Amino acid sequence: HAHPTAEQLYESLRQDHPSLSLSTIYQTLDTFIRTGLCRRVSGAGDRLRVDGTPQDHDHAVCRLCGSIFDVDRDQLQLPVPPGQLSNGLMVTGIRFEYEVICQACQEAPGRARS
Q: Which domains does the chain possess?
């Protein structure tokens, strides 16, 4: 599924809601992230990207084109996180991000493979 940026959401909504501002999008996404309705996608560079899928899953980010893909945890054996880290921080979850070269980039003529 898509992992849209705030700007992409703004562009898709502004035709139907001309008074909408990009600031409102950022504020709404911040509220959604804080309340657990969506989560920030890490590894997406300096642009805010969000993920609206509530089920636990991880992401793979293509290091060439920046595309983001969902990775189903059922396919993997992941470590069980401790309840607390040695410095007293309570662990509330764990996420993995895989650096990949996507299929499209692998098949693109002239792209280096590594």
A: 1-54 (1.10.10.10), 57-107 (3.30.1490)
